[in-house]
Each structure stands twice: as structure tokens, then as C-alpha cells.
Amino acid sequence: MAMTTPTPDRIYLDHAATTPLDPAVRRTMVEVLDGPFGNPSSVHASGRLARAELDRARRQVAEALGARPHEIIFTSGGTEANNLAIAGVARRSDRKHTAVSAIEHHAVLRAAWALRDRGLPVCEIPVDAHGRVTPDTLAAYLRPDTALVSVALANNEIGTVQDIPALAETARKVGALFHTDAVQAAGQLDINVDRLGVDLLSLSGHKIYGPKGIGALYVRDGVELEPLAWGGAQELGRRAGTENIPAAVGLAHAVAAACATWCTQNARLAGLSGVLIDAVLANVPHARVTGHPTLRLPSIASFAFADVDAEPLLINLDLDGIDASSGAACEAGSVEPSHVIEALGLPSAYRRGPLRLSLGRDTTRAQVLRAAEAIARHANRLRAPPQPAPAHLEAR
Fold it and tell me: What residue ranges do the domains of the chain occupy?
């Protein structure tokens, strides 16, 4: 079956799901694909050339994070990085309790739930109406045996940014390690591990114009971590298997580029998302912005619409040539409420219609205005009419 590709007249507003591969990253990867093909674990000349490429990529990622090369583990993506952080610490630590925020990506939540299924204590830290975890709330959920706290730097659905330095300091008071999922934040926020104060940090290539199938986990020197994959001694004995060198090189290039340009990109993205938010709120009376009003990623504009189902809204936007997301999982043909939206405590009428629009490097003002017009048109038309009260309750 032939694959369909986006046409020039389509508007792609789902960069939080994945980003296109940067041509410069592609060229770097092709150079490696056409270059040394040896196994980096081999001691002969071909292996040493491959090892040099891998070491260079590891240094680049470490420099972007303010870390040391031996603190970087290449993984298959953000999911594996998160799984390795959560399960790896729990399996090795003498402490047994794990604490995660209620709005974490499922790569964190389900890894924590798997620990719970094995009898280990796990808690979910509640968030406020904007999706923020406060240090006081976190402190109330910590225990003397808390091994790890995991709170994402920025939420992938609503864009809310957390005060990670303050949360990490709170965790340290009870001797707990701190992990942050920076998959969505990389390229838009400072991800220096010392300034954040974290012990573990996850990255993914395809969220920052790098390749799919590659990620990284920063592990602070001295943190004990149980491997999830057994075999060879690759990745300092923490992840067995021959390394994907072209992908690692692509990730390193993407991370370096993202960290070098995030300040200038943010101003443009914030302006565009502000235009989008203002236009939608001005034309959809029953719309709410979800997430924090100011402490949010500049690329994400997220909404909830009263009495509107996300599925038909997304279908209509797709037919109009607009790629967007609801942030909810589709199961058995119906869109279930997002656990993030549920955690915000919105009125029930708003929980069926979340919409996430995430902007990127090539998004234009004209595209944003066209998308806002389409959203307003469909959201107003799809809104379910108020249900009449039962006859016995009608005013007499």
C-alpha cells in the first residue's frame, strides 16, 4: 500500500508528537551510514573508527546537558529512557517507594504501575488546576524510604513547566533521587542537569528534529541503576546491545542544535501560540486554555471545549488539512478522557474535548490564523445542545 505524505497546503500542528527530520541531521547521519561500519566493541581498525563516532556523539550530548560523557546512556527513545530510570533505580535501591506526578507521560506512569504490580509502594502526586506540582505537595507524599521522584520538566499535553530545581531540592531532603522527563522540554527550556539539580534526565531524538528510535538517559555519577537488557557490556554495562551509531550521531547533532537556538526560537513560538490562543478564545465562547497561563512551553496551545467530543473535532480538522492532537488515547473506537485533563479537575463538560496544537520551526502566522478559524467553526458547530430537563423536573 502506498504511503501518503503531507502536502504543502496541509498545516502540521502536532510537533509535540513528532518533528520532521532536520536536513542537516539527515546529512550527518548519511555521512556516518556511508562511513565506518564496524562494531564499536571490536578492537580492530574498523571497530575503532566506529567507536570514535559513538564517543563523539556521547560527548556532544553530554556537553549539551552540562554532563560528563560517561553519564550518558543511549537508548531506543524517551520511553526506554524513562523505563530505565524508573525501574532501574527501583530494582537496585534499598529504598522501595517511588513517587511520580499524576500527569506524567505513560512511559513513566506505566513503568511505576509495573513496580506497584510487583508489590512495591508507588504514589501519584496530585497537581493544581494548572498542572503544577508544588514543593509542599511533593513533601507531603515523600517517605523515609522514597527511592525516586519523577516529574517531567514540561508536560507533553498541556505544556505546563515545573519548577524542577525546587522539586529536586525537596526530594533531596529525604535522600531521594530525582528524575525528570525532558523529552518535551528539550529545545525549548534549559536542560543543564546541574542547574536543574536532577540525578536522571530523559531525552528523545524525534521531538527535536532528530531521528526516531534513539534517545538518551543522563545518569549522575554514582547513581546505581539496574539494566533492563542483559547481554554485552555496551553503554557502560547499563544497556546491552550493539549501538545504533548513525542514530546516536543524529541525536547528538539535534540536541546540540536545539540547545544553541532555543532562546531565539522561543520568542517566535510564544508570539504565534499567543495569536492562536487569543483567536480561539475570541471566537469560541465555551473554550478554556488548559495548562499554566504563563509557565508553559511556547510551542503548545492546549484547549478544552465544553460539550464537544475530541474525536469528531480532530476528524473535521484533518479533513480541513490541519494535523492536531487531543492528547487522549483512542481505545475501542472511542476517545477516552486524558489522564492529564482529568487530573486538572475541570468540570465534566470540558473533559471530552481537549485539543493540543503544537507549533514548530516552520509554523507561520497565516497557518495559525487559518487553524484558529477552522477550530472555531467546528467547535461551535459540534457543541452538543443542552439536554432538556426531564418532564417531572420542568418548571410549572
Answer: 11-16+262-381, 23-258
Catalytic residue, from 123, 259, 263, 330: name it: 330
> To the nearest whole number, what is the mean pLDDT of the chain?
93
Residue 283 exposure: Cα atoms within 13 Å on the Cβ side: 19
Instruction: Give the model's confidence band at 243: pLDDT under 50 very low, under 70 low, under 90 confident, else very high.
Output: very high
Task: Give mean pLDDT, residues 295-309.
Answer: 96
User: Is residue 200 a contact partner of residue 168, using CB atoms and an 8 Å limit?
Assistant: no
Short-list 286, 85, 92, CA closest to 203: 85
pTM over 0.70: yes
pLDDT digits (tens, 9 = 90+) for 12-47: 999 999 999 999 999 999 999 998 889 999 999 999
Average pLDDT over residues 185-195: 97
The hierarchical CATH code for the domain 11-16+262-381 is 3.90.1150.10
262 in Cβ contact with 189 (< 8 Å):
yes
Neighbours of 297 (CB within 10 A): 29
Exposure b/e, 336-361, CB count within 10 A at least 16 = b: ebbbbbebbebeeebbbbbbbbbbbe
**Checking DSSP bridges between strand 97-101 and strand 122-125, what pairing results, if any?**
parallel
Specify the CATH architecture of the domain 23-258: 3-Layer(aba) Sandwich (3.40)
Catalytic residue flag (residue 263): no
Question: Greater confidence, 3 or 389?
Answer: 389
